[in-house]
């Protein structure tokens, strides 16, 4: 690759809460993954402590990297949705990793800033927050508002739902009117699989209206169809997903 790979950084003078909070979320998730292996427990704890530090930085020095790095990242990587969703996203992953009540309190105090229940991708974490919290607080009354918004997301994606707000190609690929469409098909499929696990644990189906009930099995089926389409067609298209060598 001959494209310049220039590095940039944020600081308290030039903050980037969305970038910092995303890093905190990634470090938290990584700490959970490594914690499962005894020989990596120390590394897991190191990741978690750094996640806590980075999140505190993101929250204390609030601001968008659009303002500090705009000339370099825009228009392709501008933050169009604000940094509030990333802050709640980071807190949600820290809640999952630590189980500490202060992160749950943070989420409750800031969830009013997360309003786009049908969006999930590099610039919007709204739907992911609702799905993640629903799974963390399964069968807990406190999860009700998150469940409701997560259910709305599912009904907005399910092709047979009367509330569907996305399109599907003739071959069955989820489609939204923006560039690099496979980011939507793959990221939405991830949420479908996660929420399918929640539905299975809660022994629940989602009522989308019009007689359409979304079950755990149906969500998995839809997610797998997106992956199957992507892998089957990637030989013919330039995609954001690396094709297996067999293709």
- The strand count comes to 4
Gyration radius (Cα, Å) is 19 Å
The overall average pLDDT, rounded, is: 89
Tally the helices.
9
N→C terminal distance: 22 Å
Proportion of residues in helical segments: 55-70%
Number of structural units classed as domains? 2
β-sheet strand percentage: under 5%
How would you classify the helix and strand content by structural class?
A: mainly alpha
- Assembly status: single chain
**Main sheet properties:** 2 strands, antiparallel
Strand order of the largest sheet: 1-2
Q: Give, in order, the helices and strands.
A: HHHHHHHEEHEEH
Gross morphology is: globular
Low-pLDDT parts are: none
Strand-helix topology:
Layout: H1 17-35, H2 41-60, H3 65-73, H4 84-98, H5 101-110, H6 126-136, H7 144-157, E1 167-168, E2 174-175, H8 182-202, E3 206-209, E4 212-214, H9 216-233
Features:
9 helices, single chain, two-stranded antiparallel sheet, 247 residues, 55% helix, 4% strand, mainly alpha
Question: Brief overview, please?
Answer:
Keywords: Carbohydrate metabolism, Cellulose degradation, Glycosidase, Hydrolase, Polysaccharide degradation. The chain has 9 helices and 4 strands. It has 247 residues and is mainly α.
Characterization of this structure:
- Strand 3 and strand 4 (about 210-215) form a beta hairpin.
- The mean pLDDT is about 90.
- The strands form two sheets. The chain has a two-stranded antiparallel ribbon.
- About 55% of the residues lie in helices and about 5% in strands.
- The chain folds into two domains: about 10-115, no CATH class; about 115-240, no CATH class.
- The protein has about 250 residues and is mainly alpha-helical.
- It has nine helices and four strands.
- Helix 1 packs antiparallel against helix 2 (about 40-60) and helix 6 (about 125-135) packs across helix 7.
- The radius of gyration is 19 Å and the shape is globular.
- Keywords: Carbohydrate metabolism, Cellulose degradation, Glycosidase, Hydrolase, Polysaccharide degradation.
- Pfam families: Glyco_hydro_9.
- One of its GO terms (biological process) is cellulose catabolic process.
């Amino acid at each position: 690759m001959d494209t310049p790979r220039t590095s940039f950084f944020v600081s308290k003078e030039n903050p980037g809460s969305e970038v910092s909070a995303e890093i905190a979320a990634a470090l938290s998730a990584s700490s959970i993954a490594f914690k499962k292996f005894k020989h990596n427990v120390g590394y897991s704890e190191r990741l978690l402590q750094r996640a806590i530090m980075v999140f505190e930085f993101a929250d204390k020095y609030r601001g968008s990297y659009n303002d500090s790095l705009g000339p370099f990242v825009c228009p392709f990587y501008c933050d169009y949705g604000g940094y509030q969703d990333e802050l709640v996203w980071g807190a949600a992953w820290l809640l999952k990793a630590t189980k500490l009540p202060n992160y749950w309190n943070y989420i409750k105090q800031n969830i009013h800033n997360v309003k786009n229940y049908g969006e999930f991708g590099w610039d919007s974490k709204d739907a992911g927050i609702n799905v993640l919290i629903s799974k963390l607080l399964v069968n807990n009354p406190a999860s009700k508002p998150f469940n409701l918004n997560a259910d709305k997301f599912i009904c907005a994606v399910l092709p047979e739902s009367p509330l569907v707000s996305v399109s599907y190609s003739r071959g069955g690929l989820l489609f939204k009117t923006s560039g690099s469409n496979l980011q939507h098909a793959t990221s939405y499929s991830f949420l479908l699989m996660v929420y399918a696990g929640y539905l299975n644990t809660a022994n629940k189906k989602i009522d989308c209206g019009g007689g359409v009930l979304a079950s755990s099995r149906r969500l998995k089926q839809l997610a797998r169809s997106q992956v199957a389409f992507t892998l089957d067609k990637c030989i013919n298209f330039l995609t954001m997903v690396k094709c297996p060598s067999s293709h």
